[in-house]
Amino acid sequence: xxxxxxxxxxxxxxxxxxxxxxxxxxxxxxxxxxxxxxxxxxxxxxxxxxxxxxxxxxxxxxxxxxxxxxxxxxxxxxxxxxxxxxxxxxxxxxxxxxxxxxxxxxxxxxxxxxxxxxxxxxxxxxxxxxxxxxxxxxxxxxxxxxxxxxxxxxxxx
Length: 157
Hints:
Layout: H1 2-46, H2 54-72, H3 77-96, H4 100-113, H5 120-135, H6 142-156
Helix pairs in contact: 1-3, 1-4, 1-5, 2-3, 2-5, 4-6, 5-6
């Protein structure tokens, strides 16, 4: 009888550990996917005119390093990892010369599918960063204006 109780308890602990482990893996995957889409969004806005200039890339890095760390209030390993993921995604898409419109549309789908991940504060941070990226070179062009308008509508719906 004691063997059955101990065996049952062991199985319950093992199942609990597996559930916690799976939740951590899922959480890490969701965070990774989230920050990849943020990087993709900023790439799309910066590449909307089919060229990413040095000053655009420099502003992107500065905004991500400053604003995104400041938005959390503290610099932690998670914050640094998130920023690195945004930057790596942006750089990878730039190296692949990815289509800005395709990247942007993928981001809109992601945002619409995962609305609960985007708090009002995060939406404001994303919009502010996006507007600054779009304004760096000779104000906003038509493609950037369209993307910004679609992003704002997406966040409002």
